[in-house]
Amino acid sequence: FDAEAYVRDVLARESLQGLLKIESGLINEIRALDGEKKALVYDNYSKLITATDTIRRMRTNMDPLTPTTSTLTPAIAHIAETAASLAASLQDRNAKGYGAKGPEDEVVGKKERQKQTVRWVLGAPNRLKGLVEGGRMEEATKDWEEVQKLLQKWNEVQGVNEVRQQCLSIMSGNL
Known about the structure:
The chain is an all-alpha fold. It is 84% helix and 0% strand. Helix 5 packs antiparallel against helix 6 (137-153) and helix 5 (124-133) runs parallel beside helix 7 (160-171). The protein is rod-shaped and about 120 Å long. 7% of the residues are buried. The model has no long low-confidence stretch (mean pLDDT 83).
């Protein structure tokens, strides 16, 4: 757009009254464009404020979940570690020809072994108490050492500290 050429053309073909009408029209268009610009700025500012408020609410809603998610990480790591070790032992077993099972059987068997391990650890305080009361200290010590290893691996899992404290109180004078 060549502004000088436009002005020369308008001056050449319009009278004074025509020039005033064109000026008035241009002023109205400029005002309308300014109004639209202000409306766009306001709309974008409103959207920015809304987005900021939404982010603030999301952070506020996520803050109480932070401790929960931080305790999940060690539990998930332990599950992955256990799964890897079980998978390796199953591969060894299958490599030695101990009757390969289907994938569903392996998953069910692995889950069952994991449950048995957890039950065994949870039953440790009662088992240790019985062994100590029965005078079988060597067996109690070996059992406690195995339980202790698992509790160390599961250190961040909920309930581990309670089991550890019960076992320690039983074994405290006997190690």
